[in-house]
Amino acid sequence: MTDLFTAEALAALLQVIAIDLVLAGDNAIVVGMAAAAVPLAQRRKVIFWGIAAAMGLRVFFALITTQLLAIIGLTLAGGVLLLWVCWKMFRELRSHGADEIAPDEAMDAPDPSGTVTAGVAGNAAVAAAGATTFGAAIWQIVVADVSMSLDNVLAVAGAAKEHPTILVIGLVLSVVLMGAAANMIAHVLHKHRWIGWVGLAIISYVALDMIWRGSNEVLRHMA
Q1: Which UniProt keywords apply (predicted)?
Q2: Residue 59: is it exposed, middle or buried by C-beta count within 10 angstroms (0-12/13-18/19+)?
Q3: What is the pLDDT of residues 53-66, one digit of tens each?
Q4: I need a surface site. Which of 17, 29, 35, 189 has the fewest CB within 10 A?
């Protein structure tokens, strides 16, 4: 635990917390939007299994983080992947997230099967999407979760660098936030967009740092 009490370690810890918060909120938005596209009677199941899948994938990738980071070139590939995530985040933040829906809001969204409920019934994007089957919604979430969970683990590992304690804290925190507070975080990020911009800046820095370190690693291996 002694590595926690240095300025470098504390800076890395703050980066990890910011990354976990932003990516947990983004994952919740993915779950909410997928749930809003299925008939109302199936939405609770979609939300439950969507969040469960996100938690499970985070645990899985966390368990093999050491093996992942030992692969020559993965740090570079992870940095490039995170840059793509940053581009998506930038586009979402620039559009002010007008079409974003948190899991709890999905329960009040228009029923694409024909029944319109209270709440955000005016969300035309959801209504226009048409009904999606339960299986298709789960598959959509799982595909997104694989990418986002890997992004989360690589970003946390990239920020933690040579601090294994912070790496463990970050990975545990990402699972806890996804399971217990993702819905609330999604609302906070939607209301206070500046938090998302701060998170975007931190993840961009981590991505560029990973690309730099990964490139040097590959060049050393080739030499």
Answers
A1: Membrane, Plasmid, Transmembrane, Transmembrane helix
A2: middle
A3: 888 888 888 788 77
A4: 17
